[in-house]
Amino acid sequence: MRDVPVGHVIRNARRQAGMTQTALAGALGVSVSYVNLIEHDRRQVRGKRLKDITTILNIDPKALDGETEARLLTELEEVSSDPALAGLDLDWTQVRSLVARYEPWAHALVALYRAGQRDQSLIAAFSDRLNHDPVLNESIHKMLNASTAIHSVTTILNESAEISAEQRVRFDSILGEEATRLAGIAQSLAGFFERNEQPGTALTAPEEVDEFLFERRNYFPDIEERIEQIRKSLDHDALPSTPALVESLEEDGISVRRLPLTELPETAHRLTYFDGKTLLLAEGLPRATERFEIARRITGLKASDIIEAELERAPNLTSNDARNRAKRALHAYAAAALLMPYDKFFEATKTTRYDIDALAMAFNASPEQLCHRFTSLRRPGAEGVPFAFLRANAAGYLTKRFPLPRLPMPRFGGACPLWAVYAAMQTPDLRQRQLAEFPNGDRFFIIARATRPVAGGFGKTLPGFSLMLACDALNADRLVYSDGLNLSSTAQAEPVGPTCLLCPREHCAHRQEPSARAK
Questions:
Q1: Mean pLDDT for the stretch of residues 313-328
Q2: What pLDDT, in 10s, does the model give residues 172-231?
């Protein structure tokens, strides 16, 4: 496991508390030199000693879990791998010192790099628009025709010595008409760009939502508490039944109807439609999907205020698109909490050892809904296995992602083709399991499964996806899927990477582009 620098957190907390290294050493019962080694990341501190340090210095234990530092190291690795920096001969060993001694500057460097990436994406988007946008192409064609007509008329007027008054009136009329048409085209173009003056905003929205969820560890105690109150009002201490969910909506003036697929409006999304008063569900919709859609409407009515409060406490959601995406994510979070109550679900994961098929039957949930809920089991004192989650479409593009600090994930596009999330696409409905080792020696246990597309009629087929969960290999024995595997540190693991660009394994048969990390 890669060492993560956290000594600077201890050093800063000690200084803020007004303690010397000698005083801290005395409180811990160790030598001053040992404290100095800890603060300079030359000794790892764990167990009781770590607990003693957090108590003496009044530090939140989460500040010493290394998650922020690990993620920052991964982001700096991406920065250093940019082809634009290839000629600078950067020394990667100095990055840990940068994080340990100048963490704010490290964050600033990453922020500037991300801003540069967004600018490049914006430039590419404008270039593509100028080259391919049908409105612009048509407007330019009309402008050329109008300007050609104006040029022809003015040439005739300038070169013809004798032009009758009648002809001059006709040519003046043509000039006036073409000039008016040209002005109209220019005005339309100006209006087109005014309506689209911020085309780059949406480029940052998914990234902003990822940051928001990661910073909160995908755990929202206020939402959990509100949903628990709602659940008890439905079915007391039992899991909410579908009739109870429907009855709750109807009490709030919303009816639920099931219709043949052919009778759903054309604008129906995922075989459902909601107009604010009626929730329409396609007949034959998977029961888990049906329950989840009903639960989402309930949380939309009964938990909107608490969700809005969470969004108000999220300054990193800077655009309307990001806020809307985050709002949808939190409503989905609330729906999952309603259908899979924290305490019951947490106990069930321990009993079944995260057996997705068994949990799907117990909670009437889909594999994707279960995977999302796994990542939210972060309540202090009742924490589940820390999971990373990925969802990839048929093209290999990552459509959903929830990372772990030590598991590098690309923010856009695809990941390493050797990840099990891609192998699963070849055998839908069958579990893929993988003990994967990254170039830095970090090991993760990965399970993946592809879902088949849901066919609801011509033009109404829902896409299929491949889902992946990954956890630290040290936690693999808590999962039923690891049974029968050798999980020791000497066990053979499949060598994988983050992406081809960031992977130093030059001779990998699956490489798609040169590595920026190759020595």
A1: 88
A2: 888 888 888 787 777 766 665 554 444 444 346 787 888 888 888 899 999 999 999 998
Domain closes at, from 144, 163, 195: 195
Residue 510 and residue 413 share a domain = yes
The first and second tokens of residue 182, run together, are: 């040209």
Residues 6+ apart with CB under 8 A from 4: 66, 69, 70, 73
User: Measured between alpha carbons, how far is 9 from 319 in angstroms, rounded to an integer?
Assistant: 32
Residue 500: CB atoms within 10 A of its CB come to 20
Q: What is the full DSSP assignment across 186-225? A: HHHHHHHHHHTS-TTHHHHHHHHHHHHHHHTTT--HHHHH
Q: CATH number for the domain including 398?
A: 3.30.450
The number of C-alpha atoms within 13 Å of 123 and in the hemisphere containing its C-beta is 6
pLDDT of residue 198: 46
Domain annotation covers residue 229: yes
- Give the residues across from 444 on adjacent strands: 436, 472
Q: Report the first-to-last Cα separation within the chain, whole angstroms.
A: 21
Q: Which two tokens stand for residue 371?
A: 């995977």
Of 256, 266, 451, 483, the C-alpha closest to 355 is 483
Q: Looking at 109, 143, 173, which one is the last position of a domain? A: 109
- In this structure, the number of other CB atoms found within 10 A of the CB of residue 31 comes to 13
- Dig out the tokens for 283 from the structure: 């007949």
Q: Give a yes or no: residue 22 inside a domain.
A: yes
Sheet holding 466-472, edge to edge: 398-402, 388-392, 466-472, 443-450, 432-437, 494-495
Which range marks the domain in which residue 250 is found?
201-384
Helix (H/G/I), strand (E/B), else coil: 401:
strand
pLDDT higher than threshold 90 for residue 273 = no
430 lies in the same domain as 470: yes
Q: pLDDT tens digits, residue range 419-461? A: 999 989 888 777 899 999 998 888 999 999 998 766 666 666 6
Question: Do residues 229 and 95 both lie within one domain?
Answer: no
Distance CA 324, CA 311 (A): 10
SS3 assignment for 74-112: HHHHHHHCCHHHHHHCCCHHHHHHHHHHCHHHHHHHHHH
Sheet holding 278-282, edge to edge: 255-259, 278-282, 272-274
Same domain, yes or no: 209 and 331: yes
Pair 432, 349 in one domain: no
pTM (2 d.p.): 0.70
Is residue 293 packed enough to be buried (19+ CB in 10 Å), middle (13-18) or exposed (0-12)?
buried
Residues 379, 394, single domain; the answer is: no
d(CA 248, CA 342): 21
